[in-house]
Design goal:
By secondary structure, the chain is α+β, with helices and mostly antiparallel strands. The chain contains nine helices and six strands; from the N terminus they run E-E-H-H-E-E-E-H-H-H-H-H-H-H-E. The longest helix is centred in the middle third of the chain and has 33 residues.
Length: 292
Amino acid sequence: MKKVEVKKIDATKREIDIQAEGDVVKNKFETVFKEIAKNAKVPGFRPGAAPRDIIEKNFSAAATEQVLKELIPEIYDAVVKAEQLEVIELPSISEVKLDRSNLSFKATVEVSPQIKLKNYKGLKVGFKQIEVTDDEVKRSIDSFKEMRKVENIDDALAKSVGYPNLKELQESVKRQLMLQKDNLQRQRIEHEVITAVTEDLEIKLPQAFVQRQLDDQLRRAKVDLAMKGMPREEIDSKEKDIVKELEPQARRQVKTYLVLAEIAKKEQIPLDDHMTQRVIELLLREADWSVV
């Protein structure tokens, strides 16, 4: 039997009071003691042959620790599912009390905020016809010439960079430039549709989520500075300034994720590692495209 009370602390934080009693606790102790008894080494007894009262006397603390380790996550997960809480961070567990037939604890969690989505279908998207001019191709090939320190752009230059002749080199360069322009346009369009569905939305961002994103960005920034040769002491002295610079970006990323996740739920898109890209693809499929 479980007693559950969910208290709303603020827009994104919940405190869950949980009490479990009866068979669910007793049965877990029984299971744990049986597992301990199988391998317990007790002087004067073969492994697995020690009487239950001796097992309980000698391994009570270990059994209690194992019961808590197994039972709290099991009960917590069941409560979150039953209460339909959209938890986005690991819980903070406190006020744990356990005896042989009762377990109670508090779980403080952050949940996804309520988001009132804007109309995300039919977004205006402008795209340009991509072209690569002969001059652009020539400028790229000129860079090969400068690196190879040669005078004439000819088949010899092409062969020096792995192509059978100049024409093949020119065609390859043109394809690469087309691909670069296409990728840049794709990035611009994706940024525009994300901005369109997130701007002007007032969302109470879960602070723990923002902090986790900020910590990740800070770690990467410090590694990058270290690889550039900056001494550790100097990096540490700049940490506050780095955090100040990165925090707006972390907040934008969290906001973007939450909005795209809300769209995913409405569109029955799985919230997995590919969610963001699938939602963006949906927005692009449903967009109102025009040539600019």
